[in-house]
Amino acid sequence: MNYRIGDFNLRIWSSDHAIESGLGRMLPTFEPFIVSTEPSEPSLLDLQLSCRTTDSIMLPTDARLIESSADDLGYFRLSESEQSGYWVELRHRAHTSTHYLTFDPLCLHPRVSLNLADPFVGNALSSLIRILFSQAILYHQAVAIHASAVVYQGRAYLFLGRSGTGKSTHSRLWLHALPSAHLLNDDNPLLRFVNGELYAYGSPWSGKTSCHLNERARVGAILRLRQASHDHYWPLTGVEAFKALLPSCFAIRRSAALQELLASHLSQIVEAAPIGLLDCRPDPQAAQLSISNLIIS
Q1: Bridge-partner residues for 11, per DSSP?
Q2: Quick check: 246 and 261 in contact, CB under 8 A?
Q3: Which end of the chain is more exposed for a tag (fewer CB within 10 A), N or C?
Q4: Residue % of the chain over a pLDDT of 70
Q5: What is the DSSP string of 128-192?
Q6: Sorting pLDDT into bands at 50, 70 and 90, what band is 44?
Q7: The pairing of beta strand 45-52 with beta strand 111-115
Q8: Taking Cα atoms as reference points, which of 172, 184, 200 lies closest to residue 272?
Q9: 174-191, pLDDT tens digit by residue?
Q10: Nearest C-alpha neighbor of 147 from the set 234, 83, 205, 105
Q11: Torsions phi, psi of 106, nearest 5?
Q12: 137 touches 129 (CB < 8 A)
């Protein structure tokens, strides 16, 4: 099946009929991004899926663990092999089946192995694609960012911050204050330069909010939120603006090449869009303060 996400073509396929015929059911949030005709441009990713009945795969003998976590993606382990590149092991929940993704450093030949007996196989597949897609787009002047994004008068405004900071709450406050505004994405929008202009794109990954829009808008501003007992706004530039963006972006930390690409893109973003920091409470006054500082009449 062919998809177009962030104006990138993505092909997901399998020689296994059970997987090929079940992609729509496994990936319901990808439906707005389906391309009905064969794309004329080559795919950013050509992702092959396979299935298995056992719950474990033997990783290469030289594979070494470089990262692990438990977050909204699931229970995640990333290993690196000099022979075969990166290996991702992912479980949607602590005691569910493990699914595998392997890809080379340039993301040219990715493969996913799924255990179809897992009731959360679709969630796991979506997370694995998100991990892979986030790395692949770095080679094409694009960045996946953990943020909530609102569109108002044709411009996108992104709210960043640590988990639990109130990104979604701040978006809802904006939507209440600006009735003509709408939510673009509530967890993982994409930032991409197109002909020198910075755009925010919707994606199939929007956290717990059902907002999977296949649309884009030029970036109006980006705001990092911090919880506080008072509301105060600071404009950020240069290194401080770069530091405000970096923790919210997706790139393998141990990959010097990907980190270099990410740093280059963020340096361009800092020059292309206003960046701000807002100490705030989760109240309408905080939204009014950010609106008055970010929106250019």
Answers
A1: 2, 46
A2: no
A3: C
A4: 99
A5: HHHHHHHHHGGGGTEEEB--EEEEETTEEEEEE-STTS-HHHHHHHHHHH-TT-EEEESS--EEE
A6: very high
A7: parallel
A8: 200
A9: 999 999 999 999 999 999
A10: 205
A11: -95, 0
A12: no
Q: What is the pLDDT of residues 48-79, one digit of tens each?
A: 999 887 777 888 999 999 999 887 778 999 99
Rg (CA), the chain: 19
The strand pairing partners of 17, in sequence order, are none
What's the number of CA atoms in the CB half-sphere (13 Å) around residue 262?
Answer: 24
Tens digit of pLDDT for each residue in 114-161?
Answer: 999 899 999 999 999 999 999 999 999 999 999 999 999 999 999 999
Tokens (6 digits) for 233 = 């706004």
Cα–Cα distance, 288 to 156 (Å, whole number): 17
User: What tokens does 78 get?
Assistant: 């990333």
In this predicted model, what pLDDT tens digit does every residue of 206-259 receive, in sequence order? 999 999 999 999 999 999 999 999 999 999 999 999 999 999 998 998 899 999
The secondary element (H helix, E strand) that includes residue 127 is helix 121-136
Contacts with 91 (C-beta within 8 Å, 6 or more apart), sequence order: 74, 75, 97, 98, 99, 124
